[in-house]
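Annex B. Sample input.
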Amino acid sequence: MIIVTVKPVKAELIDFSVKDESAEMNIWFSDGNHEHKLALNRRVGNSEELAEQMIMEMRKLVKSSHKPDSEDYGEILVVNFENEDDSVKKMQRFFERVKDKIKEVKQMRSAMGYLDTVNRAKKFEFELQ
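Annex B, continued. Sample output.
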C-alpha cells in the first residue's frame, strides 16, 4: 500500500469574468515529492461545493501522477490530505474571497479606480498552509 499525503500550499486568482461570475484560478499543492498546480476555470457559486470538487480533483491528479510503473495493479494508492477539514475550510474562504472580489468590481459605478480594483483582484493570492 502506498500512502501519499497531500498538502495544499496556495491558491491564486489569475483572471475573472464579471459577466458570468467565473474565475480562472491556480491551486498549488505538494505531495511530499513534487509540487503540483491545478489550473481551473470555474463559476464561483457555492464555495463549499467548489472546495470539495477541488479536493477530488487534487486526489485524481495525485493518483494519476503516482501510477505504478509495472503491470502489478495489486498496489493500492491511498491519498490523504494533511488537515483535510482545515484545507477544505481554507479553500472555501478562498472561493468566498474570489466571489467578493468579483462582486466588488461588478458594483463599481465610477471609472476612477476601476482598473486598479481589477488589477488588485487579479493579483489575489491566498495561503492554504
